[in-house]
Each structure stands twice: as C-alpha cells, then as structure tokens.
Amino acid sequence: DTIALQHGAHRTGNRTDADMARWRSLRFGQFIHWGLYAIPGGEWNGKTYNGAAEWIRSWKEMPHEEYDKLYRQFNPVNFNPQQWAAQAKSMGAKYMIITTKHHDGFCLWPSKYSKYTIAATPWKKDLLGPMIDAYNKAGIDVHLYFSIIDWNHPDYRASLKNAADSAAGKRFQLFVKNQLAELLQRYPTIKGFWFDGTWDDSWKNDGAFSDELEQYLQSLHPGLVMGSRLRADEKGARHFDSNGRLMGDYEQGWERKLPATIEDVHGNDWEAVMTVPENQWGYHAKWTGHVKTVNEILEMLVKSVSLNGNFVLNFGPKADGTFRTEEQQLAAGIGQWMKVNGEAVYNGTYAGFEKQDWGYYIRKAGTDSVYMVVFNIPVSGSLRVKLPARTELTGASMLLGNTTLTPEWIGRNEYFLHLPGKTTDSPVVILLKTVTGENKDKGNF
Ligand code: H79
Fold first, then answer.
1. Which of 197, 217, 338, 408 has the least C-beta neighbours within 10 A?
2. pLDDT at 445 over 60
3. Atom 1, ligand 1: which residue's CA is nearest?
4. Closest ligand 1 atom to the C-alpha of 99?
5. Which of 60, 194, 200, 281 to mutate to test the pocket of ligand 1 (most atoms within 8 A of CB)?
C-alpha cells in the first residue's frame, strides 16, 4: 500500500532527459573540499585533531571565535585554476564538485548575502568563477557542493523549539534560497548542486520547503542535477520517501562506501563519493591510517560503473592553493591507466553477465561491447567467461597493446581466456566480441 504524499517523489524510475543522460555517462568525477579548514589542516595549538579536518571547528580544543577568524589568513597565492583543471583532466575526471560553502559557513564566492566570504580575506577575489571557467575550458562539468548546516549563520537552528526559533528558521530558509539563486545567476554553466548537512530536524521536518526549493532551482536552471540528500518528505523521510521511492535525481547516500551488488541500487541512478584516507575531505597535514592506492581506487571506480553508478574521488587542497604530493601522484597514476582503459569507464553500465571472481564486467551503454576489468588473476592464468543464453564469444582483445586473445570454448556458454603471462601491475581490461544467436552447444540443458 502506498500513502498519499504531497512532498514525496515526483517521478518513478530514473530521469530520461539529455542533461541526466550526460551526467550518467561521465561516470568519473573529482570532489574538491577547500575552505578555511585547510589552514589548521587538522592541527591546533600543537595538537592533532583526529577527526575529519573540515570538522575541526566542532572539536572542543578549537574555540569557535578562533576558527571564525581564520578567514583573515586565507590567501591562496599559489592557486592556479588551469593547473587544477589540467590535473583533473589528465586523471580522466569528466566532472568536478567544489565546496562553495561547507558546514563552517565560509563562502568561496563573494556572496552578497553574507560577510563571511572570500571577499573579506586577503585574497579578496572570487575563487569559484575562475575555477569553473578553467574546468569548463578543459571540458569538465562543474557541480556545486552546498551545506545546508551553517555553523556561522546566526539564524541556523538544528531544531526549532519555540516561536523565535521558527522565525529564525524562516529567515534562514530565505538565506539559503537567495544564496542558491545567486550561485545559479553568477555561474550559469554549472550542471548541478551537491547538497550536504540536511540531517538536522529543522530541515527534515520541513519536507515542503525542500520540495519547493528543488522545484524552484529546477525552474531557474532546467536540467539541473540534484541528488537525494536535499529532500525530505512531509513525514520526515529522507532520500527515499515514506513509500520507499527515491527523491531527487540519483541516490546520494553512498558516502565512503559502495553497494555490493546490483540489487543494492534498486535500478536507481547513484553516485559514490570517496576519500583517499579513511575519512578526510578537507586538507589534513597528518594523514593517518590506510591511504588508498591507485589500484584500490581504480577498483572502486570500476565496481561503481559495473553497478550503474558514478564514482567521485575527493581531493583536499592546501590553504595556499596547491595539492599535496600524495594526491598529485594518485591523480597521475589513475590518469595513466585511464588513458589506455578509460573507454571501459565512460558510458559504462551494468553488463548483465554472471559476475566472476577475477573482477567486473562493464557494458558500453546501449551496445554489445562488454569489457572485462581484471583485478584478480587466478594462478592458472585462465579467466572464466560465462555468457548469457544464445550469446557466443567470437573474440577478445586486451586494450593495453591491443593484444588479441583467442577464447577457448569449454562447453555450453562458457569460455576461458588465457592471459599471455604477467603483463602489467595494473588492472587488465579486455574487450569481448560477442554475437547473439545460438550457443555452440545445443544440447538439452
Ligand atoms: O563534506 C564531507 C563531510 O564533511 C560531510 N560529507 C562529506 C561529503 C559529512 N561528514 N560526516 N557527515 C557528513 C555526516 C556526519 C554525521 C555526524 Fe553527527 C556528525 C555524526 C556525528 C556528528 C549529526 C550529528 C549526525 C549525528 C550527530
């Protein structure tokens, strides 16, 4: 049974328009968390904050008034937007998401609705405009991260407990609406918003406002892509409405985690956002714990695409506008692989083949081209390929070196591909050639 909802999902199934199709085809994005938190970089008064660097203002050792004065030091003299865009492009990213305003409330653009912006810093000039231009010139779409939670704004309330709170809440909603309209007006080439900080009661208990806001933004900028995190319904259900239907344009709950199987994504568009260490988004001077390698990140990217999702890798530039060495090296390593194998990623979709232990299948959308992306080579060197009924494997080639592999037919609709020894330290991509008709083995089974 479904219940009647005024502010639930307004659509069943994925969006089918060209703007959404474009977003879906890009598959690999870059996230950038940049703001005042890059100045302390996870350290304050000689002590290290072990939480996420961009949350340092909420640490008991960090007085709010000290944090809120950091803008006086923000001066990214080495910021080179062309270099940023070139790095993203050579990594293979097709879109990027930039924090216009994180939970701390500091705006990277000179908003006329706030004094707590880049305009008040020694840098003075807009950062978003040049960044968006540079990325667009490099052929990369830009989306804007925007936190609803605002630790700096006097009218922000986590919950509304009395009439004064409610009045503040109304003023805050207008502020949010104004800032978002301002961003769209200033940066008309952006493709979407990435909302965060929508878990407080004040937000989730006003599903009508999030619904009207989403429709307002769509009316200002038709085609805008916005994930499920913006929305609540009138019963306070978030992401999925009280009837279990996805709100917004794609499922936005995959933060630092990936779905395991195609069943986990329920046919919805989705995107995962991933940090390089376990949980650091803004710049932290002392990364601790496990730091992901190029191959680990590639596996997450490929797995996401194989399950019909997008994958976005986060970078946290330093306060001076440069990237730490680890991030530069990762971008270069990923790019090296993408240059040869990226054709398996862009426009990639779930292939519908039975998954094997060696890795992931990806089908180029709407075609018969299926790629195998091999992360685990068995000791035998033989990769099992099991095709759907009435499909035959007629050929295969490795993208690296364009090496042809001759499939060995095992029986029914199963084959082995034999790799020519150890060829690379990176995941191997093999393009399969299949024809649909009859299986070789027409026995009764
Ligand atoms: O911007 C990055 C993070 O800073 C931000 N989202 C990514 C993209 C983020 N990190 N954590 N979260 C969002 C969710 C945090 C939830 C918690 Fe809490 C904050 C857990 C404890 C404090 C809110 C308050 C939920 C439970 C208590």
1. 408
2. no
3. 281
4. 1
5. 281
Whether the CB of 54 sits within 6 Å of ligand 1:
yes
ipTM, interface predicted TM-score of the complex:
0.94
Q: Does domain 351-436 have CATH number 2.60.40.1180?
A: yes
Q: Measured from the CB, is residue 196 less than 6 Å from ligand 1?
A: yes
User: How many whole angstroms from 197 Cα to the centroid of ligand 1?
Assistant: 7
Residues of the chain with CATH 2.60.40.1180: 351-436
For range 80-84, the mean pLDDT: 98
pLDDT digits (tens, 9 = 90+) for 258-298: 999 999 999 999 999 999 999 999 999 999 999 999 999 99
Compute, in angstroms, the gap from residue 90 CA to the centroid of ligand 1. 31
Per-residue model confidence (pLDDT) at position 390: 85
Q: Is the CB of 199 under 6 A from ligand 1?
A: yes
Nearest alpha carbon, ligand 1 atom 12: 197
Whether the pLDDT of residue 90 is over 60: the answer is yes
Cα–Cα distances (Å) from 13 to 10, 249, 266, 367, in that order, read 10, 9, 10, 21
Q: Which residues in the chain are classed under CATH 3.20.20.80?
A: 18-345
Q: Which pLDDT belongs to residue 423?
A: 64
Q: Which residues contact 209 (CB under 8 A, 6 or more apart)?
A: 173
Average pLDDT over residues 127-135: 98
Q: Which CATH architecture has domain 18-345?
A: Alpha-Beta Barrel (3.20)
pLDDT digits (tens, 9 = 90+) for 318-329: 999 999 999 999
- Residue of minimum CA distance from atom 4 in ligand 1: 54
Whether residue 295 contacts residue 339, with contact meaning beta carbons closer than 8 Å, is answered with: no
Query: Cα of 58 to ligand 1 centre, how many Å?
Result: 11
Closest ligand 1 atom, residue 200 Cα: 23
pLDDT band at residue 257 using 50, 70 and 90 as cut-offs: very high
Whether residue 23 contacts residue 310, with contact meaning beta carbons closer than 8 Å, is answered with: yes
Amino acid in the structure at residue 362: I
Q: For ligand 1, is residue 32 a contact (CB within 6 Å)?
A: no
Asked whether residue 444 carries a pLDDT value surpassing 60, the answer given is: no
pLDDT-derived band of residue 441, with 50, 70 and 90 as boundaries?
low
Q: Whose CA is nearest to atom 25 of ligand 1?
A: 199
